[in-house]
């Protein structure tokens, strides 16, 4: 299949490599020239803009930071939309606002182009290993057509409903992860202040009901104070903002999400926005005047 891939960052670069490894013909573009050159060195066509990628491809995958980046990649001058024609498909795998996904889908539908919102979880390790989880919204027949393509990057690809449902599912995921890391930091703070080694607390409880994938991945980072990303706080702030905006627009309220959002804002004010989201522990360290390690 002729596949386009736009956005070759922490996630997009390994995901694009996995699409190529599965034997698909790839055309790529990113503002970052060295990322394009790396993929071109592996056999991809290095394009100079999104339009060129779309002209050469039956389906274009985007993996960009947030809604404005996807909008610009799609609809700016020499963007993807200029190279699309009826029957082609865009699969946006970025984590963006579900409201924006629906707008983009409606705009592309006017010219006969299909759109799936297909955000992912699993982080950089999952992107490299080809084991990310993909949650997909859009027309079921379009999902079915590109299921195998998405599986070249993933260990699971799940249809969750009409367009926008993929990003609603991703926001649910991001709420659970954020609140979990905050709870982990809070619990380790209590242990440290009480004179109990947080490393032993982790060992003792990880096999019990409190144990989780979040705990297994993030506790070792907190306990060794390794805050290299991984998943940056600034991206998690973006996701929580999208969750709160979406929630307000449908008259629901997310009290825990708004609390963790304020913790992340405080970390950003202190210059920690490029840290991994496990650096939520730093917020607790600051207000309790301790070091959790
Ligand atoms: P990143 O910042 O590392 O990469 C984004 C890439 O997009 C950059 O290379 C940038 O140059 C490029 N870009 C931006 N605008 C562009 C445009 N208009 N045209 C072409 N290229 C453009 O981000 P990332 O960590 O790869 O995350 C991408 C998306 O995946 C985000 O929505 C993020 O929330 C989501 N995500 C990230 C992780 C993670 O662990 N990093 C996990 C799951 C989901």
Features of the shown structure:
293 residues; alpha/beta; Rossmann fold; N-(1-d-carboxylethyl)-l-norvaline Dehydrogenase, domain 2; 3-stranded mixed beta sheet; 9 strands; 54% helix; binds nicotinamide-adenine-dinucleotide
Structure explained in plain terms:
The protein has 293 residues and is an alpha/beta fold. It has 14 helices and nine strands. It has a six-stranded parallel β-sheet, with helices on both faces. The longest helix has 29 residues, at 165-193. The site of nicotinamide-adenine-dinucleotide has 27 residues, from α4, β7 and α7.
Radius of gyration: 20 Å
Percentage of residues in strands: 5-15%
Q: Which second-level CATH architecture of the largest domain applies? A: 3-Layer(aba) Sandwich
Poorly predicted segments: none
How far apart the termini lie comes to 50 Å
Q: Characterize the main sheet.
A: 6 strands, parallel
Mean pLDDT: 97
* Percent of residues in helices: 40-55%
CATH homologous superfamily of the largest domain, by name? NAD(P)-binding Rossmann-like Domain
CATH class categorisation of the largest domain: Alpha Beta
Shape: elongated
What fold name stands as the CATH topology of the largest domain? Rossmann fold
- Number-wise, the strands total 9
Strand order of the largest sheet: 3-2-1-4-5-6
